[in-house]
Task: structure prediction
Amino acid sequence: MQAILRLFMTMISKGGTLRRVAPSASANARISPGLLCRAREAHAEFQRLAVKLESSFEASAAKRHGELSPIASAVKDYDRASESLSELGALLNDGDTDEELRKLAQEDVAGAKSRMDEAFQTLTTALIPKHPFAHLPCLIEIRPGVGGSEAALFAGDLLRMYQAFCSRKGLRCALLKYEDQEGVSDPTGSNAPLQEAILEVTSPGSYEMLRSEAGVHRVQRVPATESKGRTHTSAANVLVLPSLPTEDTDTSDLNNPNSDYFVSSADVHVDVMRSGGAGGQHVNKTESAVRLTHKPTNTVVVCEEGRSQLSNRQKAWQILRARLAQRKREQREEEMLKFRRGTSGHGKFGRGDKIRTYNWGQQRVTDHRSGLNINQLDDVVEGGEALDTVIDSVKAWMLEQEIEGLLTETEGQERH
Result:
């Protein structure tokens, strides 16, 4: 996370510009008593678990011990930096300190303050809870927005961008669903504009890597069908969902009512039907397509790409659980943000917000969250390293927002 924060200071050298070049949390400020108290409680729990694990191993305790390790290490670094700065201050304030020692102490103060600032930032970052879906694979859903056929073409560009990105990063991915404006089709043989695509990235941790891509992507370019050379503005919607792996899945997550992935079968209406579109006689003449409707939320999932009803049913349940899990998580985050917005105006970009603009005429990509402008559009849409630069800038922005929210939340608790 520290490397991501330092990105704000180095972005310009990579061909981009930023509106802001530093996190809003001041590293020169002392950590708030509430945050420090929370950190010390976590450190104490870390030490208790260490003693417990010496006598007997317990998987849940070992997992928690590992989760608390960064906080415990950050507390030690903070205490060492604080003690060093205090000792130097005592030497400088002591009238009996000889001049040579005083001079050495003055020279060390700048370094001690720098270490204190770094320890402050490290400790604050360590206190941010890890996203509960960070370790999971993900589903990337892409649909055209406003802009007609040009929006559908741009949606196809985004699909190929993420496929190229995954290939370059060594992430395993496969199309779970591909539907053009003529119906379900083979993406390798269809020239029709894209209607909907779901890309499954099965590599663990891919959700954390790509969750910042969710939102409205806007494109400004001259369509191939535009005879007068006018620039059109279109958009595509990208949704990134956590995906529970179909293999080696802990069934307790699916059967536990408190789990984000629990879906009661009584709440889901199942329809089977014949598939439409290309696919041959088998899929068109058998009832292999499956439609799931989650009645409480009116969430509908249709799968008809597979040759068997069983495979389509499994895919449909996977997508439904992913969508509902994301919905539950967003509802909890929104409840917390209501408090933060009321105290500091702290905001958040949601799935319906415009997050990025791709300007073909100026060969520029602008991310509206981090403020990054990068004039390497071709490399971005080809899933190259320039896309890494954009994604990393957004991760730095998200971390900044988390730090601001954590400070605001702690200050509110201190006042009450």
Summary: The chain is about 50% helix and 20% strand. The radius of gyration is 26 Å.
